[in-house]
Design goal:
By secondary structure, this protein is mainly beta. The chain folds into four domains: about 50-145, Thrombin, subunit H (Beta Barrel), CATH 2.40.10; about 155-260, Thrombin, subunit H, CATH 2.40.10.10; about 265-360, Pdz3 Domain (Roll); about 365-455, Roll (Pdz3 Domain). Helix content is about 15%, strand content about 40%. It is built from nine helices and 28 strands. It has helices at about 45-50, 70-75, 110, 250-260, 280-285, 300-305, 325-335, 400-405, 425-430, and strands at about 5-10, 55-65, 85-100, 105, 115-120, 125-135, 140-145, 165-170, 180-190, 200-205, 215-220, 225-235, 245, 265-270, 270-275, 290-295, 315, 320, 340-345, 350-355, 360, 365, 380-385, 390-395, 415, 420, 440-445, 450-455. Strands 22, 23, 24, 25, 26, 27 and 28 form a seven-stranded antiparallel beta sheet that branches. The protein has a six-stranded antiparallel β-barrel with strand order 8-9-10-13-12-11. It has a six-stranded antiparallel beta barrel with strand order 2-3-4-7-6-5. A hairpin with a 5-residue loop joins β23 (about 380-385) and β24. InterPro entries: PDZ, PDZ_sf, Pept_S1C_Do, Peptidase_S1_PA, Peptidase_S1C.
């Protein structure tokens, strides 16, 4: 199991860049000239912030390969043994956001399947920690230091105010070397399309981020948190100056929910959509290149009730422009059910605004990827068979999606997950909340009762 910064597979592209003059805020500044004032330095800021960035150590046991559910053993043979478990240790980073209560933000993939978690401060002190809650969709986890004392918390900045070109500093524990600071700039905002499971709306930076930096801090020059370092593009396994961080506003909102509920309560917009492209704009004769194209509105959803229609282009959310469908998903997914949001739309080239009340994720209609990433591309609803047996009905499946590749088809009815019978989306969500490493769906298709195996 990976316990370090996520790596994205890509082709390496080497680009040489020479700066015509040094920037005074960067650490790589020429030596001081005798008689002149002291050179600018990041040291004063880092001295205040470093105590708030911690190392996260995890221990646990993981199966070398997924266990085979009982329902599948008849296909493979009753004597098929379960695979042995293996001990693992991992290192990552975290950020103290509440010194009094000992709350630490980190990445979900840092602590996933951990049975023991400990926090080491930059002064060498070590504390046990417990998991308050985590969310694999956003890759955020909240820990609590046990019996905390003399902690330092970090101030959190408004990440919506970031601009490309702002200076940034990354702090973490790369390769277990110990606390390390690197500097760079904000290279891009709202970055998506990285083929990571879950939500993608990242800050991109060229501040060096490596394995072990996951969960660490991305800072502005005031020493305020602007992001949680999460992933890197690394064809060779090391930093090439393309790193990604979860925006601080998103991380703060999710942390507040984990503190209050122990889980994330996501509002649902009730649409299916895609990125706005030049081809779509041309086909629909639209003079817009950015936003979220609505391909389908789910029946009885908040969007349907508000009058959103397929073919609409969502260009803003609560007055803030939208660059992509991924950004829309990310912002809606961090908003609680029942919240009213204002959507700026383009319909037939004309602007209009509607107010949508977000549905609960326990409603009778849902996008399957919000229940399990392996089901991405399917739309679900509460349904039942002709004999009255209740289950989860597959209303649609996108071609070539993970759900389609798993074998799910329109009008399938799921009546079981692993060894648990389910009769509704709410029950399916509860089973999936346990994050099984393998998913065996009991599906009724026509007159057949079949099993589909997902990983």
């Amino acid at each position: 199991m990976k316990k370090h910064t996520q790596l994205l597979s890509a082709l390496a592209l080497s680009v040489g860049l020479t700066l015509s003059a040094p920037f005074p805020a960067l650490a790589s500044i020429p030596g001081q000239v005798p008689g002149q004032a002291a050179l600018p330095s990041l040291a004063p800021m880092l001295e205040k912030v470093l105590p708030a960035v911690v190392s996260v150590k995890v221990e646990g046991t993981a199966a070398q390969s997924p266990k085979v559910p009982e329902e599948f053993k008849k296909f493979f043979g009753e004597d098929l043994p379960d695979q042995p478990s293996q001990q693992f240790e991992g290192l990552g980073s975290g950020v103290i956001i509440d010194a009094a209560k000992g709350y630490v933000l980190t990445n979900n993939h840092v602590i996933n399947q951990a049975q023991k978690i400990s926090i080491q401060l930059n002064d060498g002190r070590e504390f046990d920690a417990k998991l308050i809650g985590d969310d694999d969709q956003s890759d955020i986890a909240l820990l609590q230091i046990q019996n905390p004392s003399r902690l330092t918390q970090i101030a959190i900045a408004d990440s919506d105010k970031l601009r490309v070109g702002d200076f940034a500093v990354a702090v973490g524990n790369p390769f277990g070397l110990g606390q390390t600071a690197t500097s760079g700039i904000i290279s891009a905002l709202g970055r998506s399309g990285l083929n990571l499971e879950g939500l993608e709306n990242f800050i991109q930076t060229d501040a060096s981020i490596n394995r072990g930096n996951s969960g660490g801090a991305l800072l502005n020059l005031n020493g305020e948190l602007i992001g949680i370092n999460t992933a890197i593009l690394a064809p060779g396994g090391g930093s090439i100056g393309i790193g990604f961080a979860i925006p601080s506003n998103m991380a703060r909102t999710l942390a507040q929910q984990l503190i209050q509920f122990g889980e994330i309560k996501r509002g649902l917009l009730g649409i299916k959509g895609t990125e706005m492209t030049a081809d779509i704009a041309k086909a629909f004769k639209l003079n817009v290149q950015r936003g979220a194209f609505v391909s389908e509105v789910l029946p009885n959803s908040g969007s349907a009730k508000a009058g959103v229609k397929s073919g609409d282009v969502i260009i803003s959310l609560n007055g803030k422009p939208l660059n992509s469908f991924a950004e829309l998903r990310s912002r809606i997914a961090t908003t609680e059910p029942g919240t009213k949001v204002k959507l700026g739309l383009l319909r037939d080239g004309k602007p209009l605004e509607v107010e949508v009340t977000l549905d609960s994720n326990t409603s009778s209609s849902a996008s399957a990827e919000m229940i399990a990433p392996a089901l991405q591309g399917a739309t679900l609803s509460d349904g039942q068979l002709k004999d009255g047996t209740k289950g989860v009905k597959i209303d649609s499946v996108e071609k070539s999606s993970p759900a389609a590749q798993a074998g799910l088809q329109k009008d399938d009815v799921i009546i079981g997950v692993n060894r648990d019978r389910i009769s509704s989306i709410a029950e399916m969500r509860k089973v999936m909340a346990a994050k099984p490493s393998i998913i065996a769906l009991q599906v009724v298709r026509g007159n057949e009762n079949i099993y589909l195996l997902l990983r």
